[in-house]
Amino acid sequence: VAGSVAIFGALRRLALALPQPAAVRSRPGRGWRWRNLLVSFAHSVLAGLWALFSLWHSPELLSDIQDGYSVSGHLLVCFSSGYFIHDTLDIIFNYQSRSSWEYLVHHAMAISAFVSLIVTGRFLVAAVLLLLVEVSNIFLTVRMLLKMSNVPSPALYEANKYINLVMYFAFRLAPQAYLTWYFLRYVEVQGQGAFLTANLLLLDAMILMYFSRLLRSDFFPSLRKGSAGRDVDGEKFLID
């Protein structure tokens, strides 16, 4: 986990050296968000492909969500825990807590749940299934980067918009719905099982809220409230 924190710290420093689009450079408030999203994009690509590989390489894990184990899955949970810790520190130390408080709540839930899995070695398969969400996050992050950079090609944003919607269903809503059903039906509501079930239900509520925002923003803009005159600098990440 500590090694993962160090890796993402190095990626953040690398992002500092990368050129930024003119639309980002022209607004000082966007510089930190741009770098933060680049690091998030790197995590999504690595963790998403890693989760897919783990399940493809060891499909038998799906038959034992509670006690199934693989070294790859364990290391993936450690890797993502390091990212969530790094991102939390990045948000706090750059005084972005107020505008990004939803991320802090999400990260606190993820870190506490993942640490319990790392220590006990149980429910690691559930964590790998949840980390399939990072495949969806690749396109969600690309969406945000395109909005921030004011990309001149609307066709690129439009194409990503529909791909993002498909990936949201396939890699975010579907695994989340399956795990919620599994935990409510098969996992004892006591100890670690109760703690993880509570986390999962809270995450369900957050995901549905984010999904409704995504639909309003990209597909039903007329339903957005109070959007006139607001831009990306005045919005929370997950509202955008």
UniProtKB/TrEMBL annotation:
Q: Which GO terms describe its biological process?
A: membrane assembly; phospholipid homeostasis; plasma membrane organization; regulation of membrane lipid distribution
Q: Which residues cross the membrane?
A: 37-56, 125-146, 166-184, 196-215
Q: Name one GO cellular component term.
A: plasma membrane
Source organism = Rhabdornis inornatus
**Compartments it resides in:** Membrane
The main place the protein resides is membrane
One Pfam family from the record: TRAM_LAG1_CLN8
Q: How does it sit in the membrane?
A: Multi-pass membrane protein
Which InterPro entries does UniProt cross-reference here? TLC-dom (IPR006634), TLCD (IPR050846)
Name of this protein: TLCD1 protein
Q: Which residues form the TLC domain?
A: 29-223
| Keywords of this entry | Membrane, Transmembrane, Transmembrane helix
